[in-house]
Design goal:
Distance between the termini: 61 Å
Largest sheet: 6 strands, parallel
CATH class of the largest domain: Alpha Beta
Number of strands: 12
CATH superfamily of the largest domain: Response regulator
Number of helices: 13
Helix content: 40-55%
Order of helices and strands: HHHHEHEHEHEEHEHEHEHEHEHEE
Shape: elongated
Structural class: alpha/beta
Number of domains: 3
Oligomer: single chain
Radius of gyration: 25 Å
CATH topology of the largest domain: Rossmann fold
Length: about 325
């Protein structure tokens, strides 16, 4: 049987082919088509099981109904959870998500932006790597909707959704101090990105505010691409040279997981004498014995805000001057376990 066409829908709804086309392309309201006609056409579309040809539609409208999502590492529980929520929320609005990982490499990030450009995605959601500012600036110059998240690029006037990482780092450190800890190690990833730097600044500020002198020997920076063996060697040096450490604040969830494996290997118990806090929650911290306290990021809210901003940008008239950028900073929550 021949699949139904726009002409079949128009004939059955007793409207013009142009009217059906406007409704299919989301321009019904702009073209002042009545709600009754929209409803009748949509019911017939559903009844006939009509599926528009996406390629033809993108050529006709300039829209592919696809959004490019570029993150640091899609296997990281934080990014995979964000991606899943964004995908779900975008799909409900008629958009599909295409995503890739940068591995924190600006060259790869730039290549991914070019790849998505060639696919003519309608918008970009990016967890940015320092060094891609000019590429994002070019997207903005072309009036392509962009939202960055997780970390900010201060030199760019761009939509962003971030959490208050300085406050998150502060609350984690203060929590340990209030538990009587005075020798708090900070284990972080050796990358110069906004969110990691702010977590460290929060750690430092909490120590200062409570009259504790920061010890450079208890600060460990682990390369982003470090192997498990490399990480274990750095942690081994930390504990061997600083036996006074009574707690550790891990600046990312994956470092905390590696830390738990290391602590188990050296048979160092987590108890009243030694505590850890992780930044970002995940299942392993809830089921670990004892369970691990965390700085929790509002993942659902982050995804919701990102999609709201993207959809608002996509529906805006690009012939008009650019409206003010959306700049969202969300609070974190310390979960004590």
């Amino acid at each position: 049987m021949k699949p139904p066409s726009i002409k079949d829908i128009a004939k059955r709804a007793e409207v013009s082919i142009t009217t059906v086309s406007f409704i299919l392309n989301g321009k019904a309201e702009k073209m002042r088509i009545s709600k009754e006609v929209i409803k009748r056409v949509e019911e017939i579309i559903q009844e006939l099981g009509f599926k528009p040809n996406q390629v033809a539609r993108s050529l006709r409208t300039g829209n592919t109904k696809t959004i490019g999502l570029i993150v640091e590492d899609i296997s990281n529980p934080f990014f995979s959870a964000i991606a899943r929520l964004i995908e779900d929320k975008a799909y409900k609005k008629g958009y599909k998500i295409s995503y890739s990982s940068t591995e924190n490499d600006p060259v790869k990030a730039r290549e991914l932006i070019e790849m998505f450009k060639s696919r003519k995605v309608d918008a970009y959601i990016i967890a940015p790597v320092p060094g891609i500012e000019e590429d994002i600036r070019q997207l903005l110059a072309e009036r392509i909707p962009v939202v960055i998240f997780d970390r900010n690029l201060p030199d760019l006037d761009v939509n962003y959704v971030v959490v208050d990482n300085l406050e998150g780092g502060y609350s984690a450190t203060e929590f340990l101090i209030n538990k009587g800890r005075k020798n708090i190690a900070f284990v972080t990833v050796d990358v110069e990105v906004d969110q990691i730097n702010n977590r460290f600044l929060g750690y430092q500020k909490a120590l200062r505010d409570h009259g504790i002198t920061a010890n450079e020997k208890t600060l460990v920076k682990i390369p982003f691409d470090a192997t498990e063996e490399d990480t274990n060697n750095l942690l081994k040096v930390l504990f061997e040279e600083n036996p006074q450490i009574d707690s550790v604040f891990f600046s990312t969830n994956y470092l905390a997981v590696r830390g738990l494996f290391f602590l188990k290997s050296i048979q160092k118990p987590i108890n009243d004498g030694f505590m850890i806090v992780a930044y970002d929650d995940q299942d392993v911290f809830r089921i670990h014995t004892p369970p691990i306290s965390v700085v929790d990021q509002p993942i659902e809210q982050i995804a919701e805000k990102i999609i709201d901003i993207i959809l608002q940008e996509l529906s805006a008239d690009r012939s008009l001057p650019q409206s003010e950028r959306s700049k969202v900073i969300l609070p974190t929550k310390l979960i004590e376990r």
